[in-house]
């Protein structure tokens, strides 16, 4: 059996997953930009599939 680890995508309960805090990262980015005086933030992003980490980053930014 080959050891397997998933990165940023849940595959099954039997396969461990490693991921980053996309929500926290998005929130931190928005917080930093706003603290530096920005009044508005324009966000460019690619695909917004349901499981995409982009959605969590956007949610973090919007909640800031």
Number of helices: 2
Evaluate the radius of gyration: 15 Å
Number of strands: 2
Unreliable spans are none
Please describe the topology of this protein:
Layout: E1 6-7, E2 17-18, H1 22-35, H2 53-62
Parallel strand pairs: 1-2
Keywords summarizing the entry:
64 residues, mainly alpha, two-stranded parallel ribbon, 2 helices, 6% strand
Describe this structure in words.
This protein is mainly alpha-helical and 64 residues long. The chain has a domain at 22-64. The protein is 38% helix and 6% strand. The chain has two helices and two strands; from the N terminus they run ββαα. The protein has helices at residues 22-35, 53-62, and strands at 6-7, 17-18. A two-stranded parallel sheet has the order 1-2. Helix 1 packs parallel to helix 2. The relative contact order is 0.22.
Short structural description:
By secondary structure, the protein is mainly alpha-helical. Helix content is 38%, strand content 6%. It is built from 2 helices and 2 strands.
